[in-house]
User: Fold this.
Amino acid sequence: MPKKEFLLDSNAYLRLAYSLHPLLFDEENLCLYVINEFEDEYKRCQRLQNKFEWVMDEDYSGNRIYEQIEITKDEKKKIKLAFSFIDAQGREYNNSKIDSMAIATVQVKNLTLVTDDGGMVEVAKTVGIHVIGILKLMKILLDSKRITYEQIKSTIAYLMYEKDLPTSNMPKFSQQYKALFNESPPDENYAGE
Assistant:
């Protein structure tokens, strides 16, 4: 079975890493990364620092350092070239330079992009990149026995409480959740079983 490799955009990482720690890993058949420039983006944004204080805790920063994407010199050149094209397209959707770098990295490394950001999805599709959202990623992690369904429900309840669901369209989110997990999503008051 070929190895499935995924790159999480910053928002996907921030939505999942606290609840599903350690989120990033590299195993025989499955691998999760976050963009290597994630910490630069985090350090530049006071809003992220205030909302996600845990990001720089040693356990989380250590997981990111240990599970970084390896990029060769040749791949760096290809990423830089792809970035210029992707970033120009991304401006139309207000994508950040880090978003464009993530898309370029995914394209060159032939990974799957994990994002629920509409602008990133649109640009990724134009360059032929396979994209999934965090719900689909959690289903993959559940099927591979990396996480439990209880962890999924707790994570979704937490995101609802924080008003940080991957979409503001609750009927669409509920429909996607039901399609993957055969039941309605938990509400923000879910406290576990």
